[in-house]
Inverse folding.
């Protein structure tokens, strides 16, 4: 089993030193950070004017406007804040599928490690939620190098087993989220998307930002089997006999419909959906993802 | 539905193999751990019912196609009328040729067999192309000449030309039965047996139902059913002719100094015809007379007194006429000087006529009148004898021996099985238990069991005697007085020689090579008044002659019969055939003591000689072969028979057969496989 350092090495995390992971919405952070906050303050980036009231610090008074209009206005600036991020890792049995040499769970773990590192480097607080049909493990978001190593060890220790119910797990997680957060969900999303849709809608309503990292094995799309095959469910759901050649087209159609449905849901709630393939170089895919999220 | 190549039906055992392969393949299918069961379950749930039906349909199609493919080599066929068969449906013709003695008869300057050969060759030549032939000759024993079907007509004609008639009689049911077995080799959709014969009655056994019933059930069970055609080449005798049908001695045993009587049956053509009959004994003419024949059977009798013991020959010769081969007939006889007998039970101390042995002594000891050499011993003498002591006697008489020891029983059983004659006379004191062992087993010594004594209370009853063989009428003696009788229960195959109205009194049966007679009473005045009647002496003599002759095998045989020699292991023998040819006999282990049918094939006198002794065998042609009468087609022949060439062709036109379906099977299998391929392709797409 890989430890946290191996995960970072596998994800070539050191290559992402200059990259940032930016939230697209506003965040509520305790510390000053890279991300926009809905709190107005006095910083670098001008936001608006407001009439002066007694007690305001005169250093924020817009003297130029006072001279021109003879009215007293105070200049207000947008306040940057740190990010509260949750790495949600689907550790159900289906994530252990490995046909291309790397399992989907392994890929998810490496991606989680990389993104956690990037977020912690930019002073954001990062938490971890491991789920299968429920929340299996939860580490509250924190910052700092010690938390990074704890987080990495926790991610490395995750093992895939049991059935999936991502929607249930996310509902549980939702109940624990007090402030706006960034949720990065690593999963294959092989389940009924109706419930997932509902939960994601709730996240959107509560102004959480969600990023869906869909991890797939190429064989799961291609279904490149021939003849009669007995498929054994990795989530312990028994066996299913099937003539692979005969059902391939229908399977692929079902698969594509499911993918389109997920894509539609993500578009509806303005959620960033990115698909990671287990057979492609992971560092490159992670870099592409992060480049799309930098400022 | 019939199968022309039923052996190939064994291929059907392969039928379950595709299904087994399917099941095994089902079990051995690839196992794959899979993550996206979410999609697969959705698909399979929707497909499950339909797929089950489709899979069953595909399996059914494949199974049926394979079944048809496996059936095709067994050549399935259905019965069809002539009109339903294609015009070019070939036939398998089995040509069965009568090679019996009667085929040597001459008509119009050539033998019947030559005329028949011409008919056969004409038949072969006129058959349509594609017809295949088998060839058999039929006499007493059918012989396969071309046992496997051939299209080579020249070969068949060559074989027909080489065939020659023999001297045996024709066993027609057997010939036809064998032809059916051979016809099983036929490969065509129509099968027929064409029997070329002169239809002489010999061997047809037309009055016996069993062989014909067996033949018919055999033919009915065949697929396709064969058609029988009989083409008769009848003997046409335009000139007067006489034939000696048989010649035999009237008595079973001939003795020196006693006149032996012979009888011969002669048949002539319908015209009044006179012939000269000459009796020859040992190749010397001894008597002659003219015989007038009017078409009916005439019996000639001849008496001769032989002076020397041993083998002699008697021959009847008629004048040469249009058929030479039926003018002579020979008969071999074995003449004895006297017959040695052993009478057990004589007690010399008793009054001479007080018991059975006394009366038998009186009847048999007169050397002038009796041909028997009588030796008398008392009842206890058997104990001290062994089998060598009994060997010189032709018959042994047990007169009122109350009990038999184990040694006695063993000795007597062995003696009779080796060819001796035994007469057991029961007294009222006879111990059933000691005799019971002689009526047990598959070949019991006694021909009947006796269970209880019947008191007759001095009543007078008629006694019927039948001691001269079946050809002579039984003699009924009135007013025979019996005081007691043992109740006899005859065994299977035994013959009743004497009986009252109620009880069998004397039973004869064969045991091994010998014979045993059992009488239920004792010939003495304490039991019956029979000894003082005039019938007593001839009755005893006839019984003993019968007993002696029944243990012997006949030395007059029909051509083709086998003869078993009484030969020592190392004895060197030679045989002299009727044509004078002498050949040394060599015996293999299996044919030790047997002269086979090929050796004794032609009629005449054969003599078998060794340094110590010799036999004479008379080979006869079956009398029915010379009867010159055509057989009438009786009720037993239920087949499609025809008597003339015209009817024959008419029947051929009506001949049905079978319509072969193997091509249809292959086409159907191909169509099913194509449909299966299309359907499975459609299911995949």
């Amino acid at each position: 089993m890989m430890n946290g350092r191996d995960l970072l090495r596998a994800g070539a995390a050191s290559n992402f030193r200059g990259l940032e992971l930016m939230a697209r919405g506003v965040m509520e952070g305790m510390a000053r950070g890279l991300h926009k906050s809905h709190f107005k303050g006095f910083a670098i980036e001008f936001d608006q004017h407001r009439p002066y009231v007694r007690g305001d610090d005169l250093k924020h008074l817009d003297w130029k406007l006072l001279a021109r209009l003879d009215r007293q206005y105070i200049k207000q600036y947008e306040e940057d804040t740190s990010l509260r991020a949750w790495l949600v890792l689907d550790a159900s049995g289906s994530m252990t599928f490995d046909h291309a040499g790397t399992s989907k769970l392994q890929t998810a773990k490496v991606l989680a490690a990389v993104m956690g590192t990037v977020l912690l480097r930019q002073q954001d607080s990062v938490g971890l939620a491991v789920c299968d049909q429920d929340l299996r493990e939860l580490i509250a978001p924190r910052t700092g190098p010690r938390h990074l190593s704890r987080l990495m060890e926790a991610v490395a220790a995750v093992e895939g087993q049991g059935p999936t119910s991502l929607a249930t797990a996310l509902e549980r997680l939702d109940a624990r989220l007090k402030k706006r957060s960034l949720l990065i969900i690593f999963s294959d999303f092989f389940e009924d998307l109706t419930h997932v849709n509902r939960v994601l809608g709730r996240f959107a309503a509560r102004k959480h930002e969600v990023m869906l990292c869909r991890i797939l094995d190429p064989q799961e799309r291609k279904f490149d089997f021939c003849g009669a095959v007995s498929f054994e469910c990795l989530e312990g759901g028994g066996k299913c006999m099937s003539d692979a050649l005969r059902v391939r087209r229908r399977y692929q159609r079902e698969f594509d419909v499911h993918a389109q449905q997920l894509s539609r849901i993500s578009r509806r709630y303005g959620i960033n959906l990115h698909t990671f393939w287990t057979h492609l170089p992971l560092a490159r895919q992670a870099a592409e993802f992060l480049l799309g999220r930098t400022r | 539905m019939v199968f022309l190549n039923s052996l190939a039906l064994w291929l059907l055992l392969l039928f379950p193999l595709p299904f087994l392969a399917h099941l095994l393949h089902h079990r051995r299918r690839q196992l794959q751990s899979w993550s996206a069961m979410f999609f697969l379950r959705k698909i399979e749930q929707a497909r499950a019912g339909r797929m089950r039906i489709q899979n069953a349909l595909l399996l059914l199609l494949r199974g049926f196609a394979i079944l048809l493919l496996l059936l095709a080599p067994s050549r399935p066929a259905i019965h069809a009328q002539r009109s339903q068969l294609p015009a070019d449906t070939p036939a398998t013709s089995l040509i069965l040729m009568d090679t019996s003695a009667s085929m040597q008869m001459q008509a119009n300057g050539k033998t019947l067999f030559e005329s028949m050969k011409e008919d056969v060759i004409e038949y072969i030549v006129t058959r349509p192309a594609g017809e295949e032939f088998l060839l058999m000759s039929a006499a007493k024993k059918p012989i396969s000449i071309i046992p496997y079907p051939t299209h080579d007509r020249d070969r068949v004609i060559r074989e027909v030309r080489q065939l020659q008639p023999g001297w045996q009689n024709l066993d027609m049911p057997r010939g036809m039965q064998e032809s059916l077995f051979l016809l099983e080799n036929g490969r065509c959709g129509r099968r027929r047996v064409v029997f070329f014969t002169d239809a002489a009655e010999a061997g047809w056994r037309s009055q016996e139902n069993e062989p014909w019933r067996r033949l018919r059930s055999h033919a009915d069970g065949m697929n396709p059913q064969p058609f029988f055609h009989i083409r008769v080449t009848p003997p046409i005798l335009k000139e007067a002719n006489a034939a000696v049908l048989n010649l035999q001695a009237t008595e079973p045993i001939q003795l020196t100094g006693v006149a032996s009587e012979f009888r011969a049956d002669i048949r002539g053509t319908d015209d009044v015809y006179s012939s000269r009959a000459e009796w020859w004994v040992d190749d010397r003419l001894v008597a002659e007379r003219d015989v007038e024949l009017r078409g009916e059977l005439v019996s000639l009798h001849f008496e001769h007194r032989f002076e020397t013991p041993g083998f002699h020959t008697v021959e009847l010769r008629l004048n040469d006429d249009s058929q030479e081969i039926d003018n002579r007939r020979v008969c071999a006889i074995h003449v004895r000087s006297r017959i040695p007998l052993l009478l057990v039970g004589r007690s010399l101390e008793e009054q001479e006529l007080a018991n059975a042995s006394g009366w038998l002594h009186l009847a048999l000891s007169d050397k002038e009148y009796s041909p028997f050499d009588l030796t008398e011993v008392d009842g206890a003498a058997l104990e001290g004898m062994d089998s060598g002591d009994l060997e010189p006697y032709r018959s042994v008489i047990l007169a009122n021996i109350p009990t038999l020891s184990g040694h006695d029983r063993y000795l007597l059983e062995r003696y009779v099985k080796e060819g001796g004659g035994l007469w057991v006379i029961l007294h009222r004191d006879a111990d059933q238990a000691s005799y019971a062992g002689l009526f047990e087993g598959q070949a019991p010594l006694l021909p009947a069991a006796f269970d209880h004594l019947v008191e007759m209370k001095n009543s007078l009853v008629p006694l019927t005697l039948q001691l001269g063989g079946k050809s002579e009428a039984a003699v009924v003696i009135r007013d025979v007085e019996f005081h007691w009788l043992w109740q006899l229960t005859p065994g299977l195959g035994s013959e009743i020689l004497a009986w009252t109205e109620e009880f069998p009194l004397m039973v004869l049966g064969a045991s091994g090579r010998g014979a045993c007679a059992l009488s239920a009473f004792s010939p003495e005045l304490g039991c019956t008044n029979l000894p003082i009647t005039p019938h007593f002496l001839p009755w005893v003599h006839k019984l003993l002659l019968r007993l002696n002759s029944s243990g012997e095998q006949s030395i007059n045989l029909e051509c083709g019969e086998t003869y078993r020699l009484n030969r020592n292991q190392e004895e060197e023998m030679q045989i002299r055939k009727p044509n004078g040819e002498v050949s040394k006999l060599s015996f293999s282990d299996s044919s030790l003591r047997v002269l086979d049918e090929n050796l004794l094939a032609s009629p005449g006198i054969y003599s078998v000689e060794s340094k110590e002794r010799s036999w004479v065998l008379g080979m006869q042609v079956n009398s029915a072969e010379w009867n010159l009468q055509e057989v009438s087609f009786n009720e037993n022949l239920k087949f499609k028979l025809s008597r003339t060439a015209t009817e024959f062709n008419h029947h051929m036109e009506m001949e049905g057969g079978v319509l072969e379906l193997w091509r249809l099977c292959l086409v159907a299998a191909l169509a099913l496989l194509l449909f299966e391929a299309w359907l499975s392709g459609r299911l995949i797409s």
About this structure: The interface with chain B takes residues 93-97, 104, 188, 190-192, 217, 220, 225, 227-235, 237, 240-243, 245-247, 250-251, 254-255, 258 of chain A (CB under 8 Å). The first helix of chain A runs from residue 4 to 10.
